[in-house]
Write a structure and sequence with these properties.
about 190 residues; mainly beta; 2 helices; about 50% strand; disordered C terminus
């Protein structure tokens, strides 16, 4: 076992490695709704709790949890120490998650993109790993489509599953413009940067 460091002994043996704060939109002070403290971060004896980015809707924060082995939610009114509620445990991690409406989308090169209902936890595969194309980043959603950047190749897919394609290559960033055009088929309007 790893011996506690002098700093750990002085601070009661705990080091804060992650926290989620609620920041008021107007007035007030930020408030911690979740935190993870460990004995010694240098011993390799701890596992990070947050296995994805954290996204919010009006009522909840969502993230992939190592403790619950899947997607969890925690009320934005929670106090530090309150336990999150498991939503979906079909996957244990995600490279990115996005929240919109009634759903949270999970993306990982091991399983593609999955849409999870926030209330029921019901999951729908949207994109297979082959369609995703390997490691991807910059997952974004608009009313009708899900977008991602796979090594500079901007791709999209219908947000409830179905056909999709590539849009452009050499992309380093983008913002969905939330507009559609109908030529011989749907073509999402995306601002490329």
């Amino acid at each position: 076992p790893c011996a506690p460091t002098a700093t750990a002994r002085e601070t009661g043996g705990l080091t804060r490695v992650s926290d989620i704060n609620r920041i008021p939109g107007m007035g007030g002070l930020p408030r911690t709704i979740f935190s993870q403290d460990v004995d010694n971060i240098f011993c390799g004896q701890w596992i990070p709790e947050l296995l994805s980015n954290v996204v919010f809707d009006v009522d909840f924060a969502y993230w992939m949890s190592s403790e619950y082995d899947g997607l969890v939610k925690l009320s934005v009114e929670a106090n530090d120490g309150d336990e999150p509620t498991p939503v979906y445990t079909g996957q244990s991690n995600a490279d990115a998650i996005v929240e919109r409406g009634d759903f949270v989308w999970l993306m990982d090169d091991a399983y593609g993109i999955i849409r999870v209902n926030k209330e029921t936890g019901a999951a729908t595969p949207i994109t297979t790993p082959a369609q995703l194309g390997g490691f991807a980043r910059d997952l974004q959603i608009d009313e009708d489509y899900v977008y991602w950047n796979q090594s500079g190749f901007l791709k999209f897919q219908v947000a409830n599953g179905g056909p999709g394609s590539g849009i452009a290559t050499g992309v380093t960033g983008y913002t969905p413009d939330f507009l559609l055009c109908i030529v011989p088929g749907p073509c999402p309007d995306v601002v490329l940067v």
